[in-house]
Amino acid sequence: MTAVVLAAAVGALFALGTFLLLRRDLVRVVWGLAIISQAANVYLLAMGGIAPATTDSVPVLAGHGDHVPQTADPLVQALVLTAIVIGFGMTAFALVLSYRVYEEHDTLDVSELGDRER
Amino acid sequence: MTAPPVGTESQLVIAPMLVVLVAAVGSLLLGRRPRARAAVSLAGGAAYAVAVAAIDWYIVLAPDAPGIATYQVGDWAAPFGITLVADGLSAFMLTMVAILGVCSLVFSTRHLPGGEGRSYYFPLFHFLALGVTGAFLTGDLFNLFVWFEVMLMASYVFVAYSGGPQHTRAAFWYVSLNLLASAVFLLGVGGIYATTGTLNMADLAQRLADPAAYGLDPVPVVGLLGLLLSVFAIKAGLVPFQFWIPTAYRAAPPQITALLAGATKKVGIYAIIRLSFTVFAGAEVAVDLSVPLLGVTIAGDSPLPFVGAALFVMATASILLGGIGAVGRDSMEGVFAYSSIGQVGFIAIPVAIAATTASPDLRRFAIIAALVFALNHTLAKGLLFLAVGTVRAATGTTRLDDLGGLARRSPPLAIAVFVASLALVGIPPLSGFFGKFLVFDAAARAENGPAIVLLLAGSLLTIAYATRMWNRSFWGARTPAVEVATVDSVQVTVLVVLATAIVAVGVGFEPVYEFARTAAEAALDTESYVDAVDPQAADDLLGSSGGEH
After folding, report:
1. Lowest-pLDDT range, B18-27, B67-76, B86-95?
2. Are A105 and B169 in contact (CB under 8 A)?
3. Which residues, at least 6 apart from A94, have a Cβ–Cβ distance to it below 8 Å?
4. Which of B141, B144, B172 is best to mutate for the A interface (most A CBs within 10 A)?
5. Hey, which of A59, B83, B190, B471 would disulfide with A47, CB 3.0 to 4.6 Å?
6. What is the pTM of this model?
């Protein structure tokens, strides 16, 4: 059940992100990027799965006796944490850039920004 | 078999990263004092070159060198902790970056582009180098992602650096594309973790080579490898992922463009070679796929034939599109940016041959060819982009229409650019001759007719655009812009040094070939890679083939 819900959530997030990414408004494009990177994070977490841990798979818990609780894969948690930080940083940078684009071009409409080449 | 002791070699592995990190922080702290900042940066660059040279000698090239050394960060053992690995392939790539990096750094001390953001130039430069170095040294798939991001963050700022409206726009598209690529990278990484239960490259190679022992199904890995390849192809700028290159290369300062073409592109190539040959080559996936339209059959017992087929298609398109695009450009950096797309195709062709062939000898030879060509590309294209910087600083323009007669104005500059152009074309005795010769030789040994025709066409296009660029900017009557030009002597010296390096690599090719051979062997030798990184896993597998982790 959880797997289906997670899959649906990831799919919906990617769909929404892609939809926003294809908009003409630069701010929506940034939103799309932010949502896609969050979708990738949720996907990453889902890939680790939730399972009864062992002291082998969670070395940090090795000193806590025999009973180790059910947990989301700690490795994946660490990865997602890193990915979230990077993703937020980059989204902030993209927002700043879009503001700068607005200042310089007086528009946030992609089609008015002109040809990418020239 | 016991874990290798933590010794000098092990610490050497992290030396270049530490050096460049210290240089970055140091130059950041000295932001307000331009002279001290430049001095610290230069010292950092020199120390970086020394650290890389030490890795080259003590780990790879010395007679009793181990060939590979690892550093387990925080002393966590391999499958859990972060592993840094230096072997022949990493060392070869690092050497290219070190040579070009130091040249670009010296070049940068003379003329810093940009306005108020100037004090951040050197720290960013070092962070870019840090990302590249980390990507070459990491032994962990997720860490590769992190180092890619470090490298990209610095490059984002550089693309927006010059501050004009068109630079901001170029940077926005560059950032958007790479954020999307990062999400795809995460998808690949997550999928591989779910399939195999590990992200450590050595552990991954180990498990894929013996899937039954670990109870995993290697088939999905082919598709996931495809996802990762598309991300690396974006970094390498292979068609159809090349569209960001002309705009981004034009927007970034020339000395950074030299690094983008010479170093970050190589990170993409390195990742393709490392993952395809060291990590995924051992996966046993029976492949038998016939493509009805072309009458080609892709067959083999590992994911490599897929990689080869995909690379071959991308390389073909890159060579043609890059070459034809370069012929029509009207500015120097436009020509070189498109040429850069074409040249990466020349690197990808031998990699594709290596992936599709069944013969181990030919596979090794083809990778040597790719590496030598990559070295030539780094030196020649690095020199040419730096020359763009010199020309722009001297004349204020790089449009071919506004240039002319540069050869008489500054003969050393002209000679350096001439040497680099000839190296691109592949004239003996320059480094480019051996690069191109080996690539042709690999195609001939593979008895791959279409590849040879393609390489010939690509070479002719190279001659066409190199001649055109040369004729229009260096010969002919002097234009007003060239008449008043003052060429910076230090910048020209850097160019001459690089040109000398191109000649030196060509004349003294034997040691370079040996180094490339060592690198290619390291790329193909999964066993010693696994053994060095994760001796425990190797033991498990030898002892009881059902070893649980």
Report:
1. B67-76
2. yes
3. A30, A33, B172, B175, B176, B179
4. B172
5. B190
6. 0.90
* Three-class secondary structure of residue B516 per DSSP: helix
- pLDDT of B347 above 90: yes
Contacts 24+ apart (CB under 8 A), B406-410: B406/B473, B406/B474, B406/B482, B406/B485, B407/B474, B407/B475, B408/B478, B409/B478, B409/B482, B409/B485, B409/B487, B410/B485, B410/B487, B410/B492
CB–CB contact A90 B146 (8 Å): no
Rounded CA gap, A26 and A95, in Å?
A: 9
What is the per-residue pLDDT for B302?
79
Q: Helix, strand, coil % (nearest 5) of chain A?
A: 70, 5, 25
Q: Using pLDDT thresholds of 50, 70 and 90, give the confidence band for residue A4.
A: confident
- The answer to whether residue A116 sits within a structural domain is no
Confirm whether A59 is domain-assigned: no
Closest-CA residue of A relative to B167 is: A101
* Structural domain for A27, as ranges: 1-50+73-111
Q: Is the pLDDT of residue B535 over 80?
A: no
How crowded is residue A70: how many other Cβ atoms within 10 Å of its Cβ? 8
Contact A82 B142 (CB under 8 A): yes
Contact of A106 with chain B, judged by CB distance below 8 Å, is answered with no
CA distance B168 to chain A (A): 6
A19 located within any domain:
yes
- The residues, any chain, with a CB within 8 Å of residue B240's CB and separated by 6 or more, are B314, B317
What does the alpha-carbon distance between residue B391 and residue B63 come to, in Å, rounded to a whole number? 44
**Reported confidence tier of residue B297, pLDDT bands at 50, 70, 90:** low
Please give the DSSP secondary-structure letter assigned to residue B528.
Answer: H
Provide the mean pLDDT of chain B: 87
Residue B187: predicted pLDDT: 92
Region B20-35: what's the mean pLDDT? 88
B197/A contact by beta carbon, under 8 A: no
Q: Is residue A91 part of a domain?
A: yes
The structural domain count of chain A equals 1
Give A29's contacts in chain B (Cβ within 8 Å): 176
Query: At A22, which CATH number?
Result: 1.10.287.3510
B160 touches chain A (CB under 8 A): yes
| ipTM attached to this prediction | 0.86
